Amino acid sequence: MAHSEDKLKEGQRQWRVDALLREAKKAIDAGENFMHVAAEKIADAAEQGATQRKIAEDVGKSAAWVNTLLQWRLGGYQGSCFGPQAKAKRVKAERAKTEHTERVFSQTKHDPASMTEAQAQAATAKAHADFAKAEADKAKAEAAKAKANERARKAEAEANERARKAEAKATTAKAKASARWAEEAEARARQASAEAADRMFAGMGTRSFGGIGNSAGIGPGGYGSKRPEMTKAERTKLVALLNHLGNSNDGERDMAARKADAMREKLGVGWNDLIVRAFR
Question: Is 191 inside any structural domain?
Answer without folding.
Answer: no
